[in-house]
Every structure is written in C-alpha cells, then in structure tokens.
Design goal:
The structure holds 2 protein chains of 2 kinds.
Chain A (H helix, E strand, L loop, with lengths): L3 E5 L3 E2 L4 E8 L5 E10 L10 E5 L5 E3 L11 E4 L10 E9 L7 E8 L4 E7 L4 E8 L4 E9 L6 E8 L4 E8 L21 E6 L11 E3 L2 E11 L11 E7 L4 E9 L5 H8 L7 H6 E6 L12 E4 L7 E4 L3 E4 L20 E4 L13 E4 L7 E9 L8 E8 L10 E5 L1 H6 L5 H4 L2 H6 L4 E2 L1 H8 L19 E3 L21 H14 L4 E5 H7 L1 H4 L4 E4 L5 E2 L1 H12 L3 E3 L8 E2 L1 E3 L2 E6 L36 H5 L2 E15 L20 E2 L10 E7 L11 E7 L6 E2 L24 E7 L3 E5 L11 H4 L2 H14 L6
Chain B lengths: L10 H20 L1 H13 L17 H11 L7 E7 L3 E6 L9 E2 L7 H19 L4
Antiparallel strand pairs in B: 1-2, 2-3
The chains are: A mainly beta, B mainly alpha.
Chain lengths: 785, 136
C-alpha cells in the first residue's frame, strides 16, 4: 500500500514565487524530498526510460513524516451561538435523500458525539427519519418515523420537541410533483409505505454543547484544528473554525429551518415557504431560516449560506457540495437557475466531496531566479526508498519570469484536463472501465490506496457514492493519477501528464527551447501570453477549456500565431474556474458527449459562471472552429498508423514531409498502443467549421472494431453505419494543416497517441521528422510556403 | 420483510442476460474444441495488435469478442483486475469487492507481463462461467 502522498498550494510558479508542499506520511515514517526536473515519465523498457534531473534546492532533505488525514464529505456549518441553546425545538427542511439505506446520516444537527449531547434530525440506521436527543450524561433518546425514506423522493422532514411535555413529533411527508424529483419517481403508492407522522415521549432533556449547527452531517469532534478563510470562502473575513464531521448525508436539502419551540404543523408549513409569510409570533420563534437560493445572482459560486431570519446566522458549506440544484418546488418551466432562483433552493451534499485537504505545511521551495521553465516535481520517498509504495511526486510547472518569454516555443500544459481526470477510481467503481479500455484494468499501489481512501475525492469521470455525477474537481489534494511513472488503466500505457512528458522529452532531445504555462495562466492572461511566442504547442489531451482559453487560442490564430494542436478530443467540455479560487474547476456533463454521467434535468448551468455547461459544441463553439478538428472516435485497445494524402505534396505543404517518402506509412510504432493514431482521434468536418481551405495531409486507417464513433453524432444507433474502425469511415484521425490571417498557421495530427511515437528508434522516425519540420518551419520568420 | 418484486430485484435485466449467456455464450465454451480455439486465440493475442505497415489492427474473432464482452460487462463485485506489483515485471490478479473503500483482494501468484496476467484472468473467467452454469 502506498505510504506517502502529497500536494502543493499551486501548480504554476514563476521565478521568485514560493510553492508550499503538504505531505502525508501514512505511517509517520521519515521521508526524503528532492526537487526534480521531469523530462520523461514513461518507464516502458521499450522506450527511452524514465528521465529526471535533481535540482539543487534548500528544501532537498529528510523530513520527519506525519500522518495527515482528509476530512471528506460536504456539509453546511453555522458557528455555535447562544441562541441555539434551547430546550424545545423544531428542525425542518425539504430533503431528497439519495442513499437513505447507508446508515446514520445527519440532516440538521446540534450534536456533539463525544459528549452525546444536544439534538438533531437524522436519518437513522433503518433509513427512517429520526430525532435524537442526548443529555450529555450518558443518556440518548431517539424517536423515528418508523417508515423508510425512499431514494430520490422529496420529503418535508420535520422533528419537534417540547421540553415541558417531553413530546417528540416526527413528520415524514412526501412532496412529489411530476417534475420536482428529476429522474426520481413521482407515483408513490401506497403512500403510507413511506409517509408517516409519529410521536413519542421521552424522559431526558437535551444538554447544550459547543458544537456548531451542521447541515448534512453531525459533529464528531468540535475542534478539528482547521478553518476556512479567503479564496472561495471570501465572505469569511476571519478564520471560520471547522469541526470534524461524520455521519455525512447524501442527497439534497432545501430550506432548512431551526426554531426554539415545538411548532404546530401549520406553523411548519408557513415557515417552509419563507420568513416573509410568518407573523410576528412565529418570527420570534425562529433561530435560523436558511434559504440556499438567497445568494444566487447570475451565478452561485459562493460557499456562503444565508440565514434569512433576524438572527442572521449565516454559515458556509464546506467541501463544495453542488449548488444550482433543483429544489423541492422545481416546475421545469425554466431550466436556468438564475432565472427562477426560488426553484433552485437545494444543495446536493455528498459524503465524498472534497475542496481542500487542509493539511499542515510540510516544506516550501522558492523558485530560483534562473530556473529554466519546464515541468518539475517534488519527489517524496519514504526513507529515500524508490518503489511504487514508498514514492510520490507532486508535479508543478515553472514558467518564465512574469510577463516574459525565455523561448520562442511555448507548451500550454492542460492542467484543467489533468484536474478533470483526477482520482477517478473507475477500475474498481465502473463496469464500463474494462469495456472502454478493451482489457482488464491494471491497478497500481496508488490506485489501491485511492480505493481505500475515498476521502481523497473523485474526478469528473466519476459518480459520487450516491450515483450522482461529480461536477467539481479541486487540486488542493493529492491527485495520484497525475504523476510521472503512472500508467493509466484507460490507456495501453500513459494518459495526461505522464503522456505529455513524451513531448517534453522530445523537445529536450531535439534541443528545442520551450517555456511552459498552464491552462490556469492562459485563462487569466489570455492571448497576451500566447502572443509572446512564435509557436504554441498543446499537450496530448487538452479536453477541458474555459471560455477565455478558447478566446485566447482563437485570437492567437487571427493575429498570426502558429499553433500545433498535438492531441485529440480537445476543447470539448466547458470547464470554468471558481471565480475566487482557480484551484477548483466545474464541469457539468450535459445531455450529449462522451461522458461518464449526465446532469440531472434542470441542472445544466454552471454554478461558477451561470452559463450553460456541458459541450462547447452546444454553445456554438465546436472544437472544429477552434482547431480545425473535432473529436470523432475513441478506442483504447491498440493504435494504428497514418497514410499520406495528395495534399501533402502541394507546394504549401511539402515542406512538412521533407525527408519522408511519398508512400511511407507514418507512425506504425510508438509507446501508446503501438501506433501514432489511437486512443482518441479527431477528423475535419466542413459542416462543423473546419476552415474551408484546410489541407488534408494524412489520415489514419486500420483501427479495430473497438474504436467507435462518438455518441453526440449518433442520432439513430444502427448497425453498419456507426460501428467501429473496421466498418465506419468516420473512424479515422485526420492530419490537417491550414493557414490563418497575418501569416499564422495551424498543424493538427488529430490523435491522442501522436506524441507517444516521437521517441521511437532513438527519436529518428517519421512522426518525429514531421514534428521537427513543422516546428522549425513555423519558427522561420517570414511567409509560410 | 415483504418478498421483493421482480422490478425490485431487476429480474428484467438478469433474466435476459441469462438467456443471452445460455444462447450465445455457453455454446462457444461447452464445445471443447471451440473452447480450445478461443483460449489459443486469446493466448496469442490477448489485447489486439496495432495497425502496422499498411495492415489493419488485429482484433479478436467475433466469437472471442462475444465471450470477452460478456465477461467485461459483468457487475463489479468479484470482478478480476490486474495488479501491478513491479512495473513491467510482476503482475498479480486482484478481486474487486464491489463496495467502495473495501480493499481489493490480491492473489499471490505472480505473472511476468501484463499479457500473461490478462490471459490467466480470461482462463479463470471461462472456468468460472462454466462452473456457474454447472459445467466442468
């Protein structure tokens, strides 16, 4: 089992910046840290092998290791307040449980597990709504609804307790419309199998405690030693202390309320609808009435939750539960949450949400003034031992000095896409993994660790433990499948970061000087960043783009930039950064596209920017318009080769093939599936915006029947037309070239496996030759042929 | 506890899958000659071969692919995975629990390559399926 994991406070640094690392030594063992320049991450003995270079740094030394845990699972937190110390109470909310059978889950709790004191509304071990009261002297009383809650059904859930009489009352009342449950059922019959009002009398009274009021969890330890402040908690002007939570709930909660009296049912109903309908008497009973839709503007990126009562007990949601979620009253008349915020009062909590590991700092590294731009990592080894179980790398990217270029070529590292694929756990979670990969998934020490440590969170390719899709990914946690040496289950060998090191290695071998910047830098700085370079390269799979990234690439082409799009399935999904924290991205997977899940009805718009999420295609920005190619097929078993097309002999193009024979097969070799065309492949399409004077240089052929056309283009599934590479002419990688205004140009080979072929035969091969011809040709000043 | 309905037990899926298995999969494995053919084909080409020098990639025969697809689409509980103990040298067979967070059970026998491990899993799956349906 893996014994060391780590992450850093940032990905992207310039000389003079300081980067901080956070390390977990699983068994409290000491570890050695070294800063290394990462050159080639593929350990395959058939290739050049692993290459790294240790960089002298003051932080390169032995450290005393410390076990650090992640407190995963999202919840709402309102700091303890004296007004919450009440003997009688009502707790109420609309709830939409998604795992009612998973065991005890907190809904609204003022509970301290250590002293067994306080009270709360829970789902109990039997999947029933329950009220729990503890007197802090060892006695706990619990009354339940005695009926199971059903998955994906909205309920009005309320528990009341009258301290004078000792009477507890439980209301478990389904609230079902044809639309409000999304894809959940709306025909509940017989109703009494799940609806019930029960009561009981107990002899104990709740004792007060210092626990915060939690929504969707209960308090295991009042003090975790952790806090939130700034960043995506910008409304927290001073450190907001966090408890350690447990009994985390899966599902939605809408309009939670807390009153200091055992309310009557008509009062509960009035209060559900909002504070404005309550009379003076009722208002005086309210301790808190949180409307999650109260701070929806044109977006709902905020982590703050608003108390609409006079108490103003605002709080925060921790670990990024999903906002902009349809509420108990969603009518489907509008599917944009900021048009009808009152119908989007729900937050969807998950027991495997994570926004930040919040570990103690382990060490820092100040980037030296003259450190060459490139891909680096903090190499962490338990007791200095190199082995899959004692080693982790925390990659980071060193840019040139702020605002400057130190090379003519720049590589944009697709960090958004790395984050989207983070910690997917699909080898153990998903049937489709083996079908996609065309082989039995291979798990490594880090995969086995992730399987047992679900608090490390998931990827946008994963479903939460309740089956709903993961729409946020944070890099403030160890992302163990974004590492050098890592071999990915989805690929015959490498994927994402480690695959992109095939490219950096080739650049170094060919003495092509290059700078690196990340997606995050491009999103922030736009085309000004690209305009510093004569040639810009993408990584092998820049699939996730923000709006400003697309704008930067489009403008670069307009202004004479020369661009090599070196992957496939690029610029495909809308993914936006949190407006206050670029370490977190959001991706809503819409109703089409090659995707692991589909957003629920009415939940297509991003919380982070309010705009329609999903495929860029649906917003009129199909990849073909950005890079000339669009994603056409995928298959992860084996790769294939290219054959030249007549356009490659035109005077505008022949320079690209200098030194390559007319009938030469291109790329029937490589470290990714044995060929340069594979995994995911793109084609041109004039109907979809490929520039009308683009040249077809080459196209791939010979793909197997596991290479299948993408589903967004299939209107009717039918045999013989939408099949695999042995029958469907849409299944091919097109290598294209086109010119752009102001003497710019774009070269795109249309394959995710392309860069895996660069090192073949000691870097002497036709894939390498084409790349060298294009980059050197693009670097020549003056007009292109 | 009331007896579960066919819908609650998802018999629509399981019984159709059973029919498909009996009709289209088992005949390929019960016949010893055919079974040997498929095992030999898998041993020689467990994953497929890339397209090379103008020749298309080599994919599995339709019969072998049909059997493999059956194995691949089975539910996660009890499913085999490959475990990389030492990259490019030592691979083991793992058994997935199907429950998130529960460890993968790792068998002790080492295999020298990814392909050797893949083929061993295929053999195990053939035997497991025959046993499940009462064949030796």
């Amino acid at each position: 089992m893996l014994r060391i994991t780590g992450y850093s406070d940032k990905y992207s640094v310039c000389p003079g910046d300081e980067i901080t690392f956070y390390v977990n030594s699983e068994k409290n063992e000491s570890y050695k840290a070294d800063i290394v320049r990462l050159i080639h991450g593929d350990t395959n003995p058939e290739g050049p092998g692993f290459k790294e270079k240790v960089i002298k740094a003051p932080c390169n030394k032995n450290y005393k290791g410390k076990n650090q845990k992640i407190h995963g699972g999202s919840y709402g937190c309102i700091q303890a307040d004296h007004r919450m110390d009440t003997d009688s109470f009502t707790l109420q909310a609309f709830i939409f449980p998604t795992t009612p059978d998973k065991g005890r889950q907190g809904l609204i709790t003022k509970w301290d597990e250590k002293s067994s004191s306080g009270f709360g509304m829970f789902i109990d071990e039997n999947g029933h709504l329950s009220c729990r009261i503890g007197n802090g002297a060892g006695k706990i009383a619990e009354v339940s609804s005695k009926r199971p809650l059903l998955r994906k059904v909205w309920y009005l859930a309320a528990v009341t307790f009258d301290a004078n009489s000792g009477k507890v009352k439980i209301y478990q009342e389904p609230v079902v419309t044809p639309t409000n449950g999304g894809l959940g059922m709306s025909m509940l019959y017989p109703l009494d199998s799940t609806a019930n009002i029960t009561s009981g009398t107990i002899s104990i009274r709740p004792s007060s405690n210092k626990a915060p009021l939690l929504i969707a969890a209960s308090t295991k330890n009042i003090k975790s030693g952790r806090h939130v402040c700034g960043g995506h908690y910008k409304e927290a002007l001073e450190p907001f202390l966090l408890p350690e939570q447990h009994e985390v709930y899966n599902g939605k909660i809408d309009r939670p309320r807390f009153s200091k009296k055992a309310l009557e049912k008509n009062e509960i109903d009035t209060l559900t609808r909002g504070i404005s309908g309550c009379d003076g008497y009722l208002r005086n009973q309210i301790i808190g009435a949180w409307d999650f839709h109260a701070n929806i503007t044109d977006k709902i990126a905020s982590c703050q939750i608003i108390d609409t009562s006079a108490s103003k007990l605002n709080g925060f949601v921790i670990n990024m539960p999903a906002r902009a979620m349809t509420g108990y009253n969603w009518t489907a008349d509008d599917i944009v949450y900021h048009h009808v915020p009152e119908e989007y009062g729900a937050i969807h909590f998950h027991d495997d949400d994570i926004d930040d590991a919040r570990w103690e700092e382990s060490f820092s590294f100040k980037i030296p003034a003259k450190l060459k731009s490139g891909v680096y990592g903090a190499r962490l080894r338990i007791k200095g031992i190199e082995s899959p179980e004692t080693e982790d790398y925390v990659p980071f990217f060193v840019r040139p000095p702020q605002g400057k270029a130190t090379a003519k070529v720049c590589l944009i590292i697709p960090t958004n896409s790395y984050m989207a694929y983070s910690n997917d756990n699909l080898a153990t979670n998903s049937v489709v993994a083996e079908l996609l990969a065309g082989r039995v998934p291979i798990m490594q020490a880090s995969d086995l660790y992730l399987n047992e440590h679900r608090e490390y969170g998931l990827s946008t390719y994963s479903c939460h433990s309740d089956g709903s899709g993961v729409c946020y990914s944070s890099r403030l946690r160890p992302i163990l499948n974004m590492r050098p040496k890592y071999r990915h289950w989805l690929s015959p060998s490498l994927w994402q970061l480690n695959a992109d090191l095939h490219l950096t290695d080739w650049l170094e071998e060919k003495n092509i000087n290059y700078d690196v910047h990340t997606d995050e830098d491009l999103d922030r700085e736009g085309v000004d960043l690209l305009n510093r370079y004569q040639v810009v390269l993408t990584g092998s799979h820049p699939e996730y783009s923000s709006e400003s990234m697309l704008a930067a690439y489009e403008t670069y082409q307009q202004s004479g930039g020369r661009w090599l799009y070196l992957g496939a399935d690029g610029f495909y999904w809308v993914s936006e950064y949190h407006p206050d924290n670029p370490n977190i991205i959001e991706v809503r997977k819409g109703e089409a596209g090659t995707r692991a899940w589909t957003a629920n009805p009415g939940e297509y718009n991003n919380a982070f920017d309010g705009k329609f999420g999903g495929m860029w295609r649906a917003r009129g920005r199909i990849p073909t318009k950005v890079c000339g190619l669009t994603f056409t097929a995928y298959g992860f078993d084996v790769s294939s080769y290219y054959r030249r097309e007549p356009d490659s002999e035109r005077k505008e193009c022949e320079w690209i093939f200098k030194g390559i024979g007319r009938d030469e097969i291109i790329g029937d070799f490589g470290l990714v599936g044995g060929g340069a065309a594979g995994l995911e492949i793109d084609r041109y399409d004039l109907e979809f915006g490929t520039p009308h004077e683009a040249f077809l240089l080459a196209r791939s052929e010979g793909h197997t029947d596991l290479m299948m056309q993408v589903n967004e283009e299939i209107h009717f599934t039918c045999r013989g037309y939408y099949g695999g590479g042995d029958e469907n002419p849409m299944v091919r990688a097109d290598m294209i070239y086109y010119k752009t205004p102001n003497n710019g140009a774009v070269f795109a080979p249309g394959s995710l496996a392309w860069c895996g072929s660069l090192s073949h035969n000691n870097y002497k091969n036709n894939v390498s030759k084409i790349m060298e011809n294009v980059i050197k040709g693009f670097l020549k000043p003056g007009e292109l042929p | 506890m009331a007896k579960k309905t066919g819908v609650q037990e998802n018999r629509g899926y399981t019984q159709t899958d059973d029919f498909i298995t009996r009709t289209h999969i088992l005949p390929l494995l019960i016949d010893k000659k055919k079974r040997k053919e498929l095992l030999d084909e898998h041993k020689n080409n467990p994953i497929g071969q890339p397209g090379c020098n103008g020749r298309a990639g080599i994919q599995h025969s339709e019969d072998l692919q049909r059997v493999i697809d059956k194995f691949r689409r089975r539910a996660m509980a009890g499913k085999y995975v490959r475990i990389c103990k030492t990259p490019h040298k030592d691979y083991r067979i793992g058994i997935v629990s199907g429950v998130r967070g529960k460890p993968v059970k790792i068998l002790t026998k080492p295999y020298p390559s990814e392909d050797a491990c893949e083929h061993e899993i295929f053999k195990k799956r053939v035997n497991d399926l025959l046993k499940e349906y009462g064949y030796k």
